Amino acid sequence: RGHLACVGLGMMLGGHLSPRSQAFIEQADVVFVAASDALVELWVQAMRPDVRSLQPYYAEGKARRQTYREMAEAILAEVRAGRRVCAAFYGHPGVFAQVPHDVVTRARAEGFQAVMEPGISAEACLYADLGIDPGRYGCQHHEATQFLIYRRVIDPSAYLVLWQIGLVGDVECRRSRGLPAHLQLLVERLADHYPLEHEVIVYEAATTPLAEHRALRLRLHALLDTELSMHSTLVVPPAMPLAADPAMRDALARATAPST
Ligand code: SAM
Predict the structure, then answer these.
(1) Which atom of ligand 1 is least distant from the CA of 122?
(2) Are 128 and 74 in contact (CB under 8 A)?
(3) pLDDT-based confidence at residue 19 (cuts at 50, 70, 90)
């Protein structure tokens, strides 16, 4: 009977894989891999020489939706054929990634057992490398293009993390690079809520043990002159203190006091 496990490889080659995810990779009949980095893919190949890369489904100019549909079909076809399938994705398979959630939901709807194993995401690395606790001031995460094309409620007293900043503005998801004019629009949107002099951080987690993470601190306006990659995540620290709500404090106190 077909079975599906979507597992996370973590961000760092050889360093972040959980024993559970590793067991799924080793014990599957068929293993697919989608890594951020050719080296990471080679590392998985060392575990399973027969691993099938999902990378060839990406193509410049091809709509990302089509790519994802094809990846999902390739994975589900093996599950339907009765195999134990493991699909390994870099980071956490369920964080800013469509295919893993999609295939797990669809496999279950078709009556197969399907599980997702968490992995160490870029988000997890970011908290460690930049010394940020999302619980301190709160933390919003958005996909950069979605952040632009929908009206969001921005809270400048919390952290704001924008994913896929290197692709910002690619509404159709056809390109592998963002356009400077699109980045300009993002900076303008942010400038409605943050001073142009506000310090932001372009973050890239290390993907091999020998590499260092990248944390480029710069003024918001200088983002336009910065080299961004597919792997850059933008962190906007809070720009204003938390605003107290005295009425709620009073209401909490009243609700705590013993009634007489
Ligand atoms: N599932 C992945 C995870 O758990 O981190 C995220 C996949 S999402 C499609 C791709 C985005 O993740 C990038 O545009 C970037 O925002 C972020 N990302 C990927 N690699 C990264 C890295 N090495 N450092 C920081 N952010 C990264």
Answers:
(1) 5
(2) no
(3) very high
